[in-house]
Description:
By secondary structure, the protein is α/β, with parallel strands linked by helices. 32% of the residues lie in helices and 25% in strands. The strands form 3 sheets. Strands 3, 4, 5, 6, 7, 14 and 15 form a 7-stranded mixed sheet that branches. Strands 10-9-8-11-12-13 form a 6-stranded parallel sheet, with helices on both faces.
Amino acid sequence: MKAVVYDTFGDADKVLKVVEIETPSPKVGEVKIRLTTSGVNPSDTKKRAGASPTLLDKGAVIPNSDGAGIIEAVGAGVDPQRVGQRVWVYNGQYGRQSGTTAEYICLPANQAVVLPDQASFEIGACMGIPAMTAHRCVTTDGLVDGKIVLVTGGAGRVGYYAIQWAKHFGATVIATAGSPSSEKECLEAGADCVVPHPSAEANASILTFTKGAKIDLVVEGDFGINLTSVLDIIKTSGVIATYSSMSVPEPSLPFRKMLYMDITIRIVLVYAMPESAKDQAKKDITQYLTNNDLKHRIAATFPMEASAEAHQAIESGAVYGTVVIQC
């Protein structure tokens, strides 16, 4: 089969290459999927650049964890009626070398989720990291119905879905944005109010909008740099669900202040989510895809031979939505 691989860390245009390798066969409990699309996310580009130093110890890596396609074969113990199903996949390159930028992938059957006919394979490639992470952030610490949710970086890949999940589950949603185009993205996702990124000015705007009420849940896209401002706007016993801290990778915590606020810090990583959380996310994603109740953004599509350009598009930070590789 044709696949994109890297066997050394570095810049995308220097290390990604298209090769012919053996097509895998499904083991016990696995399905074999003919991939149609592969979704590129920041975690994929970071791994390729060397963020996980031991990743190549077992050999070359086929990048990317998200994707979609059609099941062509099943291993022992899997219902043969699954052959022919349209599916989206998650955690494709987690804890293993073979990801989704290839013609085929074999995965545990539970990681291949039925893709409703209403959703394209491009949409399927958005469901793993962006939609599941957002779902976990919004739902993990209880119902948000009637609560106030703040989504920082609401125009981001995760933030865009977090706004939608919070609205679908009954919250009033405030989002932060750094530009007019980002503000437009947040409003299109369903935000009730959009303010600048966390700051004293943004906090004042939030309190004006909420008539003095503070935030119940913060879905945080850049934890370290935003924490100080967020602590001034979150209510006692509030929750910060964070999935990234790019600007300050190793943040320090104002522990005493947080102690007296009874704050919960929920760190979310889609790869490490408990199975119960993954199952609930898959159930809700299936329902909302079936009903066409989620909005999606495909920022750009590239052929497999242009995988380097796809990774560079994500690294540029200049695109909204998921970058998709056609397999």
